[in-house]
Amino acid sequence: EPEVTQTPSHQVTQMGQEVILRCVPISNHLYFYWYRQILGQKVEFLVSFYNNEISEKSEIFDDQFSVERPDGSNFTLKIRSTKLEDSAMYFCASSYGGSSYNSPLHFGNGTRLTVT
Amino acid sequence: AQSVTQPDIHITVSEGASLELRCNYSYGATPYLFWYVQSPGQGLQLLLKYFSGDTLVQGIKGFEAEFKRSQSSFNLRKPSVHWSDAAEYFCAVGARGGATNKLIFGTGTLLAVQP
Hints:
The complex is a heterodimer of chains A (116) and B (115). With 116 residues, chain A is mostly beta strands. Chain A is 0% helix and 49% strand. Chain B is mainly β and 115 residues long. Chain B contains no helices and twelve strands. In chain B, strands 2, 5, 6, 10, 11 and 12 form a six-stranded mixed β-sheet that branches.
């Protein structure tokens, strides 16, 4: 079965540094998402991306965050200047359609980001 | 605002025992409801979903969940737990008619299975 793959599985970075988290969604999927989970807290929606633009974003997704689909296969999340509170597990997901009714999300294994 | 509550952070059951994981939601109407499971080192895997119709839904790995509108609940059940069911379980709601597949998750319940 096709999978969403995320790299790296664990990233350690210093506060203030830029970090790029990478994802390869399922090849025929059209909608892409980032979620995150701070340790002990809920899995939170960050952003959705369709047709090469952001379709929805949460209040967490401020100017420090950006997403990009640089080619036909990768989907990236960039954090420009990391803060300690950005430490979390970041999940990439994709779906064929935009409605949870008929297009369930497929999640990657996550990237654990640790900001020191 | 939509929200999901999973009141049990950590549950331990014996192998072969029955299991019920609780989930309560807050939403203005009947939402789409989901249960996901995350095994160690794995991504979130969809167990089952409820959209409408029969309030008892069957999922993969022998799990089922029952939607109770009067209680705003969507509890996950399994009659006999296997050691391989040890994982973290997440309940989630999705908005009807939303533009994208945005889900609101609970904090998760970590299930441990004793031999």
